[in-house]
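Retry 2 of 3 after timeout on previous attempt. Resubmitting structure tokens to design endpoint.
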């Protein structure tokens, strides 16, 4: 595999925090003396009681335990706000750019962020939220989402942010999953000129939750909502009365900071748990180093706070560093395809971090929407969420970055808390489509999926696992530590298994090839095939369903569903539309099936397991290489499926 490489410019090298010599030296130190290395890095944040213990980790099945800085205490909210007040109280912490470009952007200073967060924290306490209680946040991309997260952190409550695009059913499952006391929502969420009725979604969700769950409602649009006295509370009214100060609680480094649900290969989404100290150190460090953040920069991560990227790189990492972080309520293509670039120009953005799916969609609109904007403030570009194809990378580099902005292709996961593999802008050459180098303290290994052995030497190809822990690693699955161990530590003993495939090229650089399990990555959103299947089979006309991914030009992967209908049910186009709508209602629009094929039967082994490998090949139109079909109970099913393949 040969690939063009793009070395950093001399200017980038001399201005960056980390050049290649420094990277090599620090990386070596992070492996030879992890305790010494992280003891030093832990000082990036303020501790109430300093730690004396650094790392206490076991990846052994049956006793997996991950602890960092465990005898230290801190407050995450004070680290993201209070400690900056003295020197940068008047500096902008959050720039909020609303959905509609005609509406006014807001600049929220650190002093204002402090007041707002304290008030929100006091309101939560008034509603009965105490340390350790869970709070679900179901909000649009508005500053109140950040206040809510930081307010929870301030009083030691655990937040669980639910993406505002999720359905009432998905919301109620998450409220019940962590037994939340309060749900924070808004009347409506404007996005791309349309409005999602968040409060009424919440009303529908709360029908399936305990009566004691309270609902705190932020006014965003002023749209009409129904109101249940005693359950619903008006945030804007309460905020006028609430006190401007709330003392930050002293929290243990290993006390949970948040739960974030993410999809796995089996069953329902799991609640990934991140704790306070290690997570914050890692989010702050990766934010500063990967994006080479300097004082005065304007950092924009386009993710939604409903995903981990929004947690680590809109809220916690940037604010811990006293940065200015931009929060955008809208979408890349509304009112037109130049919106991203107009926002970059308007706010003089220096680092821009987005997903390949957005880049591909915008690339499809041509260069003009980019070229009409002044992007001279940009210094560094980033991508995250899925493998980026070289064409999209090259367009991003040439048309957006004018060939002068290094692209950091950051590989990481909800589970990892922050970047694990990424080039550093002043240290490494980049290659279109490669995530390149491990971050400090991270030891990636390529394993042979059959034997589980590490593949030494270069090039290598196999599955990606990580040897040993880093401070941002997830600690457990909420309420189910056994599932945590089984999912990540049982297939390959002694390693954290990522679920991704990977290649290491002749230069030793890493290329992520995508999931090797039954997890789809649709427009950078993770989704279990099992989730979509169980939504489909919940429809009264569906007998059975199997779901696989197939290559999709914009989304990366599309959702291909094989559906067997109940006896006597007519397979019609109307029913296809109905099922598509059904899945949107059950899970949310991001899970909407792209293609639905009627299947008279599904290829199963004699023991009844659906052979997805075969279904994937058919969906990919690669049925010449179906591989071994001898274990199929009824091989004729396959021919029928091939004959009725959906064209795309
Ligand atoms: C941060 C985030 C994680 C999965 C991960 C992988 C894919 C993320 C990537 C990438 C190739 C990159 N992924 N970054 N694949 N190159 N730079 O996206 O978290 O939503 O949990 O998804 O996304 O497959 O396993 P999450």
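Retry 2 succeeded. Sequence:
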């Amino acid at each position: 595999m040969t690939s063009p490489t793009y070395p950093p410019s001399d200017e980038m090298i001399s201005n960056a925090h980390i050049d290649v010599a420094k990277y090599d030296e620090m990386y070596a130190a992070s492996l030879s003396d992890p305790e010494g290395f992280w003891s030093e890095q832990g000082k990036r944040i303020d501790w109430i009681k300093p730690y004396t213990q650094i790392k206490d980790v076991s990846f052994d099945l049956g006793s997996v335990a991950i602890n960092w800085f465990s005898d230290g205490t801190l407050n995450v909210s004070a680290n993201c706000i209070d400690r900056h007040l003295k020197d940068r109280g008047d500096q902008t912490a959050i720039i909020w750019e609303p959905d509609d470009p005609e509406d006014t952007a807001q600049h929220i200073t650190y002093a204002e962020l402090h007041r707002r967060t304290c008030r929100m924290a006091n309101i939560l306490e008034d509603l009965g939220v105490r340390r350790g209680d869970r709070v679900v946040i179901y909000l649009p991309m508005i500053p109140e989402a950040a206040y809510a997260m930081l307010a929870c952190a301030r009083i030691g409550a655990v937040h669980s942010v639910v993406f505002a695009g999720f359905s009432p059913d998905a919301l109620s499952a998450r409220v019940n999953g962590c037994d939340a006391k309060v749900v924070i929502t808004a009347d409506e969420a404007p996005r791309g000129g349309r409005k999602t009725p968040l409060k009424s979604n919440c009303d529908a969700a709360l029908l399936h939750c305990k009566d004691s769950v309270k609902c705190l409602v932020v006014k965003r649009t002023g749209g009409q909502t129904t109101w249940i006295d005693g359950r619903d509370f008006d945030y804007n009214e309460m905020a006028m009365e609430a006190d401007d100060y709330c003392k930050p609680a002293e929290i243990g480094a290993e006390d949970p900071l948040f739960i974030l649900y993410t999809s796995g290969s089996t069953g329902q989404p799991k609640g990934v748990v991140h704790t306070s100290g290690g997570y914050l150190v890692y989010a702050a460090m990766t934010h500063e180093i990967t994006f080479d953040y300097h004082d005065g920069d304007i950092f924009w991560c386009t993710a939604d706070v409903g995903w981990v990227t929004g947690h680590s790189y809109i809220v916690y990492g940037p604010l811990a560093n006293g940065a200015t972080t931009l929060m955008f309520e809208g979408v890349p293509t509304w009112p037109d395809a130049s919106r991203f670039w107009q926002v970059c120009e308007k706010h003089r953005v220096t680092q821009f971090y987005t997903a390949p799916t957005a880049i591909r969609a915008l690339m499809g609109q041509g260069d003009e929407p980019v070229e009409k904007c002044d992007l001279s403030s940009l210094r560094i570009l980033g991508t995250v969420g899925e493998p980026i194809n070289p064409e999209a990378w090259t367009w991003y580099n040439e048309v957006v970055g004018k060939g002068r902005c290094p692209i950091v292709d950051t590989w990481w996961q909800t589970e990892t808390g922050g970047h694990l593999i990424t080039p550093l802008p002043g240290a490494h050459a980049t290659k279109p489509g490669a995530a390149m180098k491990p971050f400090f303290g991270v030891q990636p290994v390529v394993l042979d999926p059959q034997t589980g052995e590490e593949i030494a030497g270069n090039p290598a190809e196999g599955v990606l696992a990580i040897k040993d822990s880093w401070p941002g690693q997830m600690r457990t699955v909420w309420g189910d530590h056994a599932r945590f161990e089984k999912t990540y530590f049982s297939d390959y003993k002694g390693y954290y298994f990522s679920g991704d495939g990977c290649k290491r090229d002749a230069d030793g650089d890493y290329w992520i090839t995508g999931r090797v399990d039954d997890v789809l990555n649709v427009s950078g959103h993770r989704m279990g095939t099992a989730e979509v299947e169980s939504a489909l089979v919940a429809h009264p006309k569906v007998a059975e369903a199997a779901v696989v991914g197939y290559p999709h030009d914009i989304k990366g992967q599309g959702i291909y569903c094989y559906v067997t209908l109940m006896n006597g049910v007519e397979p019609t186009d109307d029913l296809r539309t109905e099922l598509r709508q059904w899945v949107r209602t059950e899970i949310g629009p991001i899970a909407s099936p792209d293609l639905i094929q009627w299947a008279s039967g599904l290829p199963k082994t004699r023991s009844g397991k659906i052979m997805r490998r075969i279904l994937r090949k058919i969906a990919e139109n690669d049925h010449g290489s179906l591989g071994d079909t001898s274990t199929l109970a009824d091989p004729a099913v396959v021919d029928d499926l091939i004959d009725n393949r959906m064209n795309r």
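Attempt log closed. The two ends are 30 Å apart (CA to CA).
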